[in-house]
């Protein structure tokens, strides 16, 4: 008699990720909403904004484009995961998955793969738009490419963890989008997505600096924009070390929150 060996959690997670991506592509409304919002904002505001960042020779539209790319990462991770998981909990999908032999970790591996692929796709789309509309250039040196890579990976990781953690906040899947989009929209204004960060009131800057989106924006600017922008940065420096520390701290906090707040069942299931 032979004993059938279960596939590893990683292998199941990879299969789950492929399934999640196919499901996402089939759900055209969800796909359109996820990708459309940052793209529409870039198209609209990109035609409105003019001039250069004060004290620099950098086109403000390039500054704005870098912020929208960071915002797009948050959209495809924090918002999409938070809403998607809340809906899966509400319709009983999570409860059914939890009752299968699938390791719980495989579910999260699948979600992480989905978030990474969608974030990469949206980043490419937004960068191409920024390049065509505003002359946004790719990183000019290997060091800047490395900066872009670690900021992107760190940003996706942090926002994914926070999206999983915050999925337990909405009381129902139907209200998840409204609940999660409010902090997302507020953070965009606090983090210097639509305005030069140093033009914001001092108190707003201090509040924005607490959250990861501000540092993702700044990290992407450091990879995509010239050093002539530094006079407009808060510390007149790219602060890569501080960016890494803040994102690492939020990553740890997000992981702890996932462990302590994630629920497989609805509140009324007991």
| Main beta sheet | none
Based on secondary structure, the structural category is: mainly alpha
Mean pLDDT equals 88
Helix content: over 70%
The sequence of SSEs as H and E is: HHHHHHHHHH
- Which residue ranges are poorly predicted, with pLDDT under 50 across at least 5 consecutive positions? none
Terminal Cα span? 41 Å
Q: What is the total tally of β strands?
A: 0
Q: Roughly how many Å is the radius of gyration?
A: 20 Å
Question: What would you note in describing this structure?
Answer:
- The chain is mainly α and about 270 residues long.
- Helix content is about 70%, strand content about 0%.
- The protein contains ten helices and no strands.
- The protein has helices spanning about 10-25, 30-50, 60-90, 95-100, 105-135, 140-165, 175-190, 200-210, 210-225, 240-260.
- Helix 3 (about 60-90) runs antiparallel to helix 5, helix 3 packs parallel to helix 6 and helix 3 (about 60-90) runs antiparallel to helix 7 (about 175-190).
- The longest helix is centred in the N-terminal third of the chain and has 31 residues, at about 60-90.
- The radius of gyration is 20 Å and the shape is elongated.
